[in-house]
Write a structure and sequence with these properties.
elongated, 73% helix, 102 residues, mainly alpha
Length: 102
Amino acid sequence: MNPLTPLLATLFLLAASFPYVQRAKHPETRLLAAYLLYVGSFVLIAAVAYFVAGWVVALAGLGDALARPWGAAVFLILVFLPAFAFAGWQIKRPPMQSPLPR
């Protein structure tokens, strides 16, 4: 596999999420703020889920299951589904209405 493939896949995923953010964001939230919130939340949750799922797979001794297509697909679903759900929930919330500090 080419070393640039994961990077290109990530960039494609982030670029493809822009229309979703544009459609799903709260009406009072600015587009750039919603996109940055979505990307930041997605990356954070996906990274945590990746390391936790990888740790559980290693502890259970199921590392060879990731070599099979169904094992890799289940692993990726377990990583990306919570990230999509949490990031989507974050951008649908209204922005905070706190006053500016003095």
